[in-house]
Amino acid sequence: MRLITIICGLLLAIAPAIAQKSSPHHRVAKTIATPLSTHDCGHNITLHLSTPEPTQGSLLLLELRSVTQPVTGIKATWDSREIPFWQEPKPNEKSPAVWRALLGVDLELKPENYALTLAAKTESTEEIPCSATIDVKEGKFATESLKVAPNFVEPNPEQLARAEAERQRLRAIFATITPDRLWDGTFHYPLTGVTTGGNFGKRRILNGKAGSPHGGVDFPAPAGTPVYAAQRGRVVLAEPLYFSGNTVIVDHGLGLYTFYAHFESISVQPGDLVDTGALLGKVGATGRVTGPHLHWGATVNRARTNPLQLISLPL
Length: 315
Ligand SMILES: [Zn+2]
Hints:
single chain, alpha+beta, five-stranded antiparallel sheet, 5 helices, 21 strands, binds zinc ion
């Protein structure tokens, strides 16, 4: 798996170079075909989507700007989920108020059109409705075959019961939306010296049987390599789990969680408020693994998304 991961990393690194070589004519055609990502809600309010056509496993940044009247709150739903918005501090009195939200597209969400609907509350208590269509495209994910210890593919009843109980706990954690935004600024790689990562969303065949898709990014690293918090947040889980081994989950607020797995040792406790770059633990090979590496995941409003997109978003 280590070799496969490294190969994927190289492919990712090569991709931008290939894109730059596309002809100017091709780029113009693509620009024309791209649907509008800014929606006029009326009343001098606009809604901007970082992309109107995300692929499975993507993260979108939504921005709502009101020029003439202050917006005091936003209620938004997408795919039957409530999308929490936060208000950015205004740089000066004349600049319009900006509200932002993160929208996660689960890596297995059926590719089709989904309506984003919202109501912006204003000081005059009038609610201004706005909507946008988000056209989810199929993600291009590779398939890989892995050989792992048999008990991780066909667990015995006791192991199955433990794994199922842990799955329910994780579901409950990811369904909890902490109302405060705990992160502050851009997200960082959880390991020093890495600039990319591969294998997110890979469909996996484990010992010849179809497994669930890979919900994170793997970074191969020697056991003992320090792992750092990608941003500020509160530790909500720090313990060994059946599949992910020694695991740490950080709640960044507003439904955003980062997930760190297979640690050799854990350096934090549940309840700890950690800053960006705080030591969470050390790379190991605990749980379902083929060698030492860090598995890094990002969940937004229960949607499993590519954590590398967190780094590229201007948060
Ligand atoms: Zn992994």
